[in-house]
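Recap from last week: sequence in, structure out.
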Amino acid sequence: MEAQDPKSEATAAREDTDSAPAGSSGEPESSPAAARPSIHERRFAKVSRRELLKLTPILALGAFAIPGVQQSLLEKGLGFSDWASARLFRSGHLATTFADSQLTAFEKFPINDYDVDDPGVNFDTWTLTVSGLVQKPGEYRLPVVQNLPRVRQNTRHVCVEGWDVIGRFGGARLSDFLNLVGADTSAKFIAEKCADDYYETLDMATALHPQTLLCYEMYDRPLTREHGAPLRLNIPTKVGYKQAKYLTELKVTNVITKVGYWEDQGYSEYYGL
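Predicted structure tokens:
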């Protein structure tokens, strides 16, 4: 069917108006059919919406390609993800634990670090330096941690590189140690430093979680150097890079200048599981 000439339609409308009976308003009478958009208008609107939806992902990708916008979009996206994850975190909700029969064999548990497998910690002189918002700052030897109630748990270790394994970890709850040193648990963060110059931070809610361990055992044996001896973090509610190895310092604080080694290169700050 051919489209009508718009000029013809306009002329016809004027003729209808001119021929209106005396006493009328001089305007054509309205009707439901006249108020509705034509089939051509409806089709055009439908197609326009469909094409716009198709273009939306392309426009978004195009924005990411703009150098001046890309970094800002990435930072805002990560910031929103961390904000949402923190609010969804349930301090009493436990990560899944597994039977001994489901454990990954110790020799198949990957050795993963950012620099060296063994930074050469001297176990005889090693101490954990505690500072910040605590009543008992100072240097703490490993037996102090080992004298706290020991927890052993079979939990999944998830690496940001894409692999995961189920391991057996043993140690003291970080919350028990924080209680021992009189930490202000209303503070926001625990900042950590390590013998290999790695650094990390934990939000206080995660630090107080009952499955967050100051780990000195794996598979019921003393932690090996390659896996972070003499002391590392085991946090089954977080991704692997949050679980710092070769711990040397803990600081309870409300202010941090550096979030973490990987986070300061653009990775997620929170990264809960």
